[in-house]
Amino acid sequence: MKVMLIEDDEGKAKAITSHLKKKGIPSSDVIRAKNMTDFAGSLGADIGLFIIDFKLPSVDNGIASQNGKAILEAIIKAGKSNSLLLAISSYPNDFPELREFYESRGCILADYSNKKGWQATLDSILIQLKRNVNFDFLVFCALQEERNPYVALLGGRQVTRADIDCLDVSIGTRKGTVVLMPNMGLVNAAVTAALCIDRFKPAVVGMSGICGGFSNRAAMGQLFVSSMAYEYQSGKWTTDGFKHEPYQVPTDPLLLARLRALVNKDNFIDELESGFRGGKRPTEQHKPDLGIFTSGSAVIADKQYLEQIQIIHRKVSALDMEVFAIQRAAELSPARPKCICAKTVVDLCDSEKDDDLHAYGSYISAKFMVKAITDSFS
């Protein structure tokens, strides 16, 4: 998000810009408006904080007048009522008259002559701004090894926002972050995804990583893209045993058509494997496919229990601990972002579990996610 500094005084603007830079806001993220014309011309930008002066000229070299109220009204009418507002003025004598108008619209007043005061107020607002940053896309990973490939593929910068472990990355012109969940499981995934979707307002969310597979419908090292997800744990215990009542979340049909076209590209698995240097590969290549995921909070390593889960849906392909929660959080969000979940089968949910394909599975699912996000914005 950008900061708009609405200020005609060069010395004052320099002091505020310098303080912003000290607090990690680069000059490229500060939009300077020296008059009302500049302000109107830049109002369409993605601005998270407006720093306002009470008095501003209407045009270049004009006479400064009380345009602060007009600026506030324009910000609100432009649909930017969620932006943070701070008025730093050299005219504190005007505060009693203007305070009610400004503060009723969420704008904090600060006296420029009180240097420590306005800097402390600005620091507090910047902390909130960093928490409120918006992203074009979010990707969730349950394990560190699932997030590691994004560093190799995209670089990025690790940031902690309100105890959320983020790896900020860019895909083309789109900005996003790869969130490392605090722990595995449905509850952690649901809470983390719901919080992040609400806070960062992404257009696309996704999840990549590794999963288990059903031996008659999946192969070791095969990538599956979720066409639908359900929770195998939901239902009711009775004297006759457990009666399943699986809640289902489908992937959006239009998005699914694009994902199907992507996985059906010629030699797509070669494209995904390109650049992998992390260790063991599967003994045989398997074409990526769309599949149904079932999710629960427990790791499954028992064939008999797996068979009980498998009978819920005759076409289920993959089993994991988070996909249903991610898709459900996206579905329930007022923003309804597109949701893309893709994981690689690294075991067949039996007692012969090992870590041999974890690096491979994490890599090709991350590589797919980058391509799918790119495609979704094209």
UniProtKB/TrEMBL annotation:
Residues 138-356 form the Nucleoside phosphorylase domain. Coiled coil: none annotated. GO terms for molecular function: adenosylhomocysteine nucleosidase activity; methylthioadenosine nucleosidase activity. It holds the Pfam family PNP_UDP_1. InterPro entries: Nucleoside_phosphorylase_d, Nucleoside_phosphorylase_sf. GO terms for cellular component: cytosol. One of its GO terms (biological process) is L-methionine salvage from S-adenosylmethionine. PANTHER family: 5'-METHYLTHIOADENOSINE/S-ADENOSYLHOMOCYSTEINE NUCLEOSIDASE, 5'-METHYLTHIOADENOSINE_S-ADENOSYLHOMOCYSTEINE NUCLEOSIDASE. This is Nucleoside phosphorylase. The lineage of its organism: Bacteria, Pseudomonadati, Pseudomonadota, Betaproteobacteria, Burkholderiales.
